[in-house]
Amino acid sequence: MQKRLSDRAADDILTMIIIEKRFLPGEKLPNEIELSEELEISRTTLREAVRILAANGVVEIRRGVGTFVREDFEMNEKKGISSLAAVKTDIRDLYEMRLIVEPEAAYYAAIRASDEEIEHIMQLGKQIEFEIADGKDRTEAEREFHRAIAKATHNEFMTKLLPVIYQAIDQGVELSRKKRKAILDTVQDHKVIMEFLRMRNGEGAKSAMKIHILHAMEELSMQ
Amino acid sequence: MQKRLSDRAADDILTMIIIEKRFLPGEKLPNEIELSEELEISRTTLREAVRILAANGVVEIRRGVGTFVREDFEMNEKKGISSLAAVKTDIRDLYEMRLIVEPEAAYYAAIRASDEEIEHIMQLGKQIEFEIADGKDRTEAEREFHRAIAKATHNEFMTKLLPVIYQAIDQGVELSRKKRKAILDTVQDHKVIMEFLRMRNGEGAKSAMKIHILHAMEELSMQ
DNA sequence: GTTAATATTGTTGTCTGATGTCTTGGTATC
DNA sequence: GATACCAAGACATCAGACAACAATATTAAC
Known about the structure:
The structure is a homodimer.
Chain A: H1 5-18, H2 32-39, H3 43-55, E1 59-62, E2 66-69, H4 91-112, H5 115-133, H6 139-152, H7 156-172, H8 183-198, H9 202-219
Antiparallel strand pairs in A: 1-2
Chain A binds a DNA duplex through helix 3.
């Protein structure tokens, strides 16, 4: 009992794809004017229909190029929902946030951390060195290192914010697992940061952290 | 690199629902004309955005009646930014976060904002002046002001993060509506910030914002 | 007074036509 | 060849108008 034309149209197009197999995955649909004329609806209504299909992962719209049946369509039948809800931010934005937040975190950590916390951070730093030396994946250990610094700020919000940023980064990045040459930078950067933390030098820790993040951004060829 | 307005709008509305909790499940959204004006998009574009949300099961459209947040829409998104909203953090921590993030936001806004965005910020600034002159509650207007600046950074994460901080602050504070001397500070601070924004002076905007937040913290007798 | 028919109001649904903007490919120029 | 520019094709957005529907208020009939 669909009354809306846009819903009916979405259904019609889906039928063309699944049942009639008129458009196979990867193929291009007719342009909006042709399709709307064929379905005898206005372009406005057709566009709403296509939005529905796009939201359900059926088609992919490429501005200036056309609308295509998604290559991976048919596999993800149950998916559909709430890809929107997930934070779908640009990696660049996320690193920019790190660049804003983490140097300040290092600053407050240098000032407020307890001796035990500093000691803990040192141990994590050494652990990363070992793992790099063993050729292991350093991602998790490095994350622990940064998390420990965030915690040492004694700012609850900060402590909870950084993991969110890291996870968002994880979701969007799987490239960049290649460029490992920056590993030397990492170890050196960490040493400098730790040194400033131990000396309780807030400004120094801030600057060192800034450089560290900038190095990471370079590694991803940003900035 | 620019995203579609309809996608952005869908995201904005989702933010209103999940993060700002402005519309709870079962509640009605503003009608299409009002919402499109608020988001500063055409009705056509808004309707495409709503189609996306409907396809994702976020809202339900009832012709002739209105558009409603779906009763069974569960905003359990334990990974995303919204999880931070639940955190019950110390007010001091939250203002410290503002002090870290907002000056940088002002910096990037000064550099990246479009002329229209700058103009919009100016208007919001004036509106606050009027509301203060009329003795009205300036909270909401002021939030809009800061939100507009955050948006002008063109950093999506930033745009989503600040509302969370504001909301967390709201939950913990209802005092401090007395000290009126800070009102003059507010107007003056805003003027300075706006001036730097207009001149596209990033460093200036950053400093001015820092001072503004520090004033706000003084008002709450922190630091 | 009760009830049924009818307006009114508010909202979503659809259409038309124009203009903006992005992508791509071709062509001219060097 | 490489580069810069131009034009066509396609999606993106807008503004305004009218239609269809739902809920409520008003009126008419009894």
